[in-house]
Design a protein that fits this description.
This protein is mainly α and 158 residues long. It has one domain. The protein is built from 5 helices and 2 strands. The protein has helices spanning 3-30, 33-42, 51-71, 75-99, 117-141, and strands at residues 104-105, 112-113. The protein is globular.
Length: 158
C-alpha cells in the first residue's frame, strides 16, 4: 500500500469513525433532550428558555453530520458543520472549566458528573482536530456539495 493510499485509508477510517461516534451519541441523546437542555441551562450562558431549542438543534446537527460523514454525502458541508459543532462543545467545556462551574453532562447519552475538566476539554479539542483533518480531506478531494458527479457512496478509499 503506497503512502497516499495509506493516508486515504486513515482519513476514511477517521471519517467513518467520527460519523459512527456522532450517530451513536446523537441517538442516545434523543431520549434525553431534557438532560442536554439542563446542561445548557447550568452553563449559564443564555437564558433558560433557549436551552431546549438549542439542545434540539444540537442533537439534530449531530445526527445530520453523522449521516453525512458515514455516507460521504455533502462531505465538505458536513465537515464544516462538524467543526462548528465540535468547537461549540469545546467552548462550553472550556468556559465552564474557566468559571469553576460544577457541571454534569449527557455527552454520550449517559449523564455523568464532569470531574476532570482538563481531560474532557482535551477530548473536545481532539474532536475539533479530527474534524479539521476531514475539512482538509474534503477540500483535497473536491467531494461533496460542489462535485455531484462523484458517487456519495463511494468507499473505494477503504
Amino acid at each position: 500500500m503506497g503512502h497516499s493510499r495509506f493516508i486515504d485509508f486513515l482519513l476514511a477510517l477517521l471519517r467513518v469513525g467520527l460519523g459512527i461516534f456522532f450517530l451513536i451519541t446523537g441517538v442516545l441523546k434523543v431520549g434525553g433532550l431534557g438532560e442536554t437542555a439542563d446542561f445548557l441551562t447550568r452553563s449559564a450562558l443564555l437564558p433558560e428558555w433557549c436551552s431546549l431549542p438549542l439542545a434540539c438543534i444540537g442533537v439534530a446537527m449531530e445526527l445530520i453530520v453523522a449521516v453525512c460523514l458515514i455516507s460521504r454525502r455533502s462531505y465538505r458541508g458536513a465537515t464544516l458543520w462538524g467543526v462548528v459543532m465540535c468547537s461549540v462543545f469545546l467552548f462550553l467545556y472550556a468556559q465552564a472549566w474557566a468559571r469553576g462551574l460544577e457541571l454534569s453532562c449527557n455527552c454520550t447519552g449517559v449523564t455523568h458528573q464532569i470531574e476532570n475538566y482538563p481531560l474532557d476539554t482535551s477530548l473536545r479539542l481532539l474532536l475539533v482536530g479530527g474534524m479539521l483533518l476531514l475539512v482538509w480531506d474534503s477540500r483535497r478531494r473536491r467531494i461533496g456539495v460542489w462535485n455531484p458527479e462523484n458517487s456519495p457512496y463511494d468507499f473505494s478509499e477503504i
